[in-house]
Write a sequence for this structure.
């Protein structure tokens, strides 16, 4: 054994040539006593003894719970792209505004940190060949971690299961990096497994664990064969950058569906203003997403007896009495209030705009508009004629028809006859014999092959709502024509995908990573074996010395 091997043996808890006269109980560094006390929650001096099979199983359980919490942490981070939708839904149900991503990520981070520290304690003790006596408090806390993560998964599955598709998309986008990370983690685990393999006398358990480990390693080594991340491509094959559609304007910079939000979107280089159109009681189309005015206006203060009414039950003069900006400063929905100090007065002065007002602004700036038209409830004076009234409003402004992206399915044929210049956008997948030019769908509804197939057929694809750079990059590589976003001011600065990897370079990285990991694993097992033999030889030498001293 060379000097480096002796050093590693010492770090792993085995004696070295300079420690021949040390007793067996003092083989490990003194710091391991502190680790053992943290692990067992005991201040009593430990006795050197072999860990039981039960305690080894607890170590495996700690590892599994750590992986469980790590996965949940990953999920909570991915949820951030759509968390605003969740926040809105909770507000509509409970009347409480809270950024729930902060709550979810904080809880997940606490659980993950605890499990990581406990795992590191356990692995250090295994490396130092110390007895494992996991305290009952740690066992209870592990159970609490499992329960909390399970509750989160069950709640997500019952109330927001569409997000599992988002997680699947994220895995496809990040799979090359997850593969490398997993290979590093598994190869590092070889030190612990090798030490246990050579130390333990339980043949069934050690061979079973080793078999599972070998299967896992082999699966990781060949997993890139099944990775199809869209950003593994040559730079020359990268599709054009998707242009940006402002979701209700620029809602991170100004109150949604207001003229200020429209102006901020234009400043952020947005090409299309996406909004929602409602019909007032007296037939004025106006911008509003929610059926209730409670979230985005001060209706509760102005009309305390009517704040639960549908917004279409209000006349245009009623709507103009409401403030559509103060809520933005009070609730700070995107955490961007600190950037709006210089424009607070402008934010507080915002009113609900009419569709005509926005159309005139689009006309003057040559900005396109895409809107979803909401039918008024039964009993409304314009329940049946809302499409025609909206169309009349558009035509009256004399806006260039090519700037209007018509999304509503209601009376589409009649709209095409009266306004043949409108760009017809469909909110469904393409079917056989369709003559569709453009579709507007959630990014969870189209796979990468479908997006590329649509583009090959010259069908424009807009996907919503895309807020995170990783997702925008993923859809860019997939070939999306455009995306609807809340974070237009952030995505506009993304001049190239977050990452783009040449297939040949990835092949080299894959092979090199696997080879290094394999060498590292073999080295760990060989060195652990050498250290154990050295320990056995020194134990025999100590025993002979004791026998000789007794004889003499």
């Amino acid at each position: 054994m060379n000097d480096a091997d002796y050093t590693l043996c010492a770090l792993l808890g085995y004696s070295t040539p300079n420690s021949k006269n040390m007793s067996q109980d003092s083989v490990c560094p003194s710091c391991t006593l502190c680790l053992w006390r943290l692990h067992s929650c005991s201040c009593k001096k430990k006795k050197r003894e072999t860990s039981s099979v039960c305690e080894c199983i607890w170590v495996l359980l700690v590892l599994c719970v750590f992986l469980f919490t790590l996965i949940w942490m990953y999920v909570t981070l991915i949820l951030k792209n759509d968390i605003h939708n969740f926040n809105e839904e909770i507000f509509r149900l409970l009347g409480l505004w809270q950024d729930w991503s902060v709550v979810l990520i904080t809880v997940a981070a606490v659980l993950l940190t605890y499990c990581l520290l406990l795992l590191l304690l356990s692995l250090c003790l295994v490396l130092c060949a110390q007895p494992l006596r996991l305290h009952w408090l740690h066992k209870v806390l592990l159970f609490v971690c499992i329960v909390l993560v399970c509750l989160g998964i069950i709640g997500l599955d019952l109330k927001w299961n569409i997000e599992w598709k988002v997680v699947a998309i994220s895995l496809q986008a990040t799979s090359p990096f997850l593969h490398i990370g997993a290979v590093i983690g598994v190869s590092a685990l070889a030190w612990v497994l090798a030490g246990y393999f050579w130390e333990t006398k339980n043949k069934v358990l050690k061979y079973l664990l080793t078999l599972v480990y070998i299967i896992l390693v082999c699966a990781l080594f060949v997993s890139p064969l099944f990775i199809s991340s869209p950003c593994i491509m040559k730079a020359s094959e990268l599709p054009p950058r998707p242009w940006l559609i402002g979701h209700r304007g620029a809602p991170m910079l100004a109150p949604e569906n207001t003229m200020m939000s429209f102006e901020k979107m234009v400043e952020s280089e947005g090409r299309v203003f996406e909004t929602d159109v409602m019909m007032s009681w007296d037939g004025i189309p106006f911008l509003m997403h929610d059926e209730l005015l409670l979230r985005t206006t001060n209706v509760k203060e102005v009309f305390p007896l009517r704040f639960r009414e549908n917004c279409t039950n209000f006349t245009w003069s009623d709507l103009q009495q409401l403030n559509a900006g103060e809520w933005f400063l009070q609730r700070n929905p995107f955490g961007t209030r600190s950037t709006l100090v210089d424009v607070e007065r402008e934010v507080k002065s915002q009113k609900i705009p009419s569709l005509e007002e926005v159309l005139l602004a689009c006309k003057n700036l040559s900005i396109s508009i895409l809107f979803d038209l909401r039918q008024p409830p039964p009993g409304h004076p314009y329940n049946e004629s809302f499409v025609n009234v909206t169309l009349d409003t558009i035509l009256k402004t004399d806006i260039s028809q090519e700037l209007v992206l018509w999304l509503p399915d209601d009376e589409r044929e009649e709209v095409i006859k009266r306004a043949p210049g409108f760009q017809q956008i469909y909110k469904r997948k393409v079917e056989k014999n369709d003559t569709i030019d453009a579709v507007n769908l959630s990014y969870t509804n189209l796979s990468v092959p479908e997006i590329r197939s649509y583009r090959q057929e010259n069908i424009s694809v807009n996907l919503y709502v895309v807020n995170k750079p990783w997702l925008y990059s993923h859809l860019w590589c997939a070939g999306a024509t455009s995306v609807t976003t809340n974070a237009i001011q952030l995505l506009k600065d993304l001049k190239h995908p977050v990452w783009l990897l040449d297939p040949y370079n990835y092949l080299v990285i894959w092979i090199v990573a696997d080879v290094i990991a394999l060498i590292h694993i073999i080295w760990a097992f060989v060195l652990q074996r050498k250290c154990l033999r050295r320990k056995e030889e020194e134990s025999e030498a100590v025993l002979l010395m004791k026998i000789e001293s007794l004889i003499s």
The chain is about 55% helix and 5% strand. The CA atoms of residues 61 and 142 lie 9 Å apart. Residues 14-28, 45-50 have pLDDT under 50 and may be disordered.
